[in-house]
Each structure stands twice: as C-alpha cells, then as structure tokens.
C-alpha cells in the first residue's frame, strides 16, 4: 500500500501538529487544533495516538511529556501509506506493526474509529461489513446517484438494516458531517441504531453536533433576493446592480429559478410583462 505521494510539507514559519506534521488539516478529519506553550496538536491525532488530554478548570491541558514520548516513538516508524517517518498511529490488530498518519488513512484505505478508544486499523486488518454480496450491476449511490460499481471495496458501503441501500464512503461521510449524530440515518430505510453503529465501526465520523441545516448562517444566503441584471448586454445607465421600481428599467426575475434577472428594456419586455424565464430555464432557442 506504499504511496509515491509525499505528505505536503508546511513552511518553516507555519506552526504544525506535532503528530502529523501538518498545519492546514481539515478539522472534520483531524479535529480542532489544541495549543500549549511551544506545541500544538490536532484533537484526533492526539486521541488516535492513544494520548488523552487532561481536563482542568474547564479547559483541555495537553500532556506534554506523553506527546514528546509519542513523537520520539513515531519518528522511528515509517508510514505504510506515504513512506515518511513520524507515523504516530499504529494498527490496533495484535501483532501488526503497520503505522500511518491520520491524514494518510483514507489514501491507504485504513480506518480510524471516531469513538470509544479511537482504534485504528491498517488496510489488511480493518473491519469489514458482514454482507457477502456485491452490489448488482447498475446500482447507484443513493446520495450522488453515480454508480457504485459491481464489487465490494473500501469505497462502497451498504446499509446493514435494509441491505439494499448502497453509497460511496465519501458520500455517506459528507452526509454524516451535515446531519450530525442526532439526524444521521440510512437514506433509504431510515434505520438509526444499527445503521449508525455500523457506520462508526467502519470509520465514518459522526460528529456530536447539530445538523448544518439548523445553523441560521447556512440559510442566510437563501434569503437574499437576486438583484442584478444578467442580460448579455445591460443598457441601463445605472449599471447592472441598479434598477427602477417601475417602467422599462424595473428588474424582472426569472419566474422559474429566480436566480437570474433582467431589466425589462434589456430583454425587450413590455411594461405589462410580468413573466420571464432566463435562458437556462427556457432554453436558448426560445
């Protein structure tokens, strides 16, 4: 499973995680960055390396001595994915000596379980779903509607409850990040308990947070009405961003998508016309 790709090196000026050596890691993969004098480390890099932070007075205190020992040990281990040293995560299978960086896990088809003891497994010893049947030819992912292929693989998963809902690993991971622990269910049969436990065992990170669609900031862009003339040639002297309240320079929005607009005059509409469709909705020939 050795990769020819070298991990991205950060510039010497950037403070990096002591365990993975990266500065700009995705927080959904590596967790929040924890700080201490002279050191910083990603939350999940810490737990996956079997190091527990110490809660004190409402904050997380980094166990500096334990981190230093782990870094020293990791510098002696080569990542089984990227080939570089500094791999602080070791396969939880007894007798297996493979180690890897958290950010290399996906490329190496390794699994890290984001719960309990945060156990990690290499590509050979990772947990497998119980299903023995590959998806039927022509089966599509229920999330992106693209084919999942006709063979069992690390990149495809099936619901353990209904056993017919297939999806790509990346697609179901994105759904888990959006839904959060309270709303993450099988997209087909809506099973919760069995589905969530299986997904967690298979390395899907289900964050303990509210759904992204409950966040008011996610809705704010949807509440802003389009206010720009998108005609190929805008004739209004005030420009595309300006419009009158009535008359030839009134802005009319597409009656189908409301995502494009035009001044009446710019699309040769009469002052009584109140319905108009943009080219994308009506078609260029209409």
Question: Element order, helices and strands?
Answer: HEEHEEHEEEEEEHHHEEH
Provide the CATH top-level class of the largest domain.
Answer: Alpha Beta
The CATH architecture of the largest domain would be 2-Layer Sandwich
What value does the Rg take, in angstroms? 26 Å
Largest beta sheet, briefly? 2 strands, antiparallel
Number of helices: 7
| Main sheet: strand order | 1-2
DSSP strand count: 12
Determine the CATH superfamily of the largest domain: Zinc/RING finger domain, C3HC4 (zinc finger)
Cα separation of the termini: 55 Å
* Approximate strand percentage: 5-15%
Weakly predicted, low-confidence segments: 2-12
Class computed from helices, strands and strand pairing: alpha+beta
The percentage helix is 10-25%
CATH topology of the largest domain: Herpes Virus-1
Average of the residue pLDDT scores: 84
The assembly state of the depicted protein chains is: single chain
- Broad shape: elongated
> Total domains, how many?
3
Protein name: PHD-type domain-containing protein
GO molecular function: zinc ion binding
Pfam families: PHD_G2E3 (PF26054), zf-HC5HC2H (PF13771)
Organism: Bambusicola thoracicus (Chinese bamboo-partridge)
């Amino acid at each position: 499973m050795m990769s020819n790709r070298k991990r991205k090196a950060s510039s010497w000026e950037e403070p990096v995680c002591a365990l993975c050596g990266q500065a700009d890691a995705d927080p959904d993969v590596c967790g929040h960055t924890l700080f201490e004098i002279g050191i910083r480390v990603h939350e999940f890099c810490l737990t996956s390396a079997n190091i527990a932070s110490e809660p004190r007075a409402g904050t997380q205190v980094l166990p500096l001595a334990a981190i230093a020992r782990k870094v020293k040990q990791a510098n002696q281990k080569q990542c089984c994915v990227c080939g570089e040293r500094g791999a602080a995560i070791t396969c939880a299978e007894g007798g297996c000596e493979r180690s890897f960086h958290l950010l290399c896990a996906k490329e190496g088809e390794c699994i890290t379980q984001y719960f309990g003891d945060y156990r990690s497994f290499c590509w050979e010893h990772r947990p497998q779903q119980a299903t023995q049947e590959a998806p039927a030819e022509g089966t599509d992912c229920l999330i992106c509607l693209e084919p999942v292929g006709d063979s069992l693989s690390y990149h495809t998963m099936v619901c353990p409850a209904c056993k017919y809902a297939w999806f790509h690993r990346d697609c179901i991971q994105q759904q888990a990040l959006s839904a959060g622990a309270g709303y993450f269910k099988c997209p087909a049969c809506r099973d919760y308990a069995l589905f969530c436990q299986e997904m967690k065992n298979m390395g899907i990170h289900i964050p303990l947070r509210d759904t992204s669609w409950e966040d008011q900031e996610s809705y704010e862009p949807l509440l802003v009405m389009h206010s720009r003339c998108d005609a190929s040639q805008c004739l209004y002297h005030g420009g595309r961003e300006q419009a009158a309240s009535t008359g030839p320079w009134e802005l009319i929005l597409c009656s189908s998508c409301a995502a494009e607009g035009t001044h009446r005059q710019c699309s040769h509409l009469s002052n009584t016309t109140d319905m108009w469709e943009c080219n994308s909705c009506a078609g260029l020939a209409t």
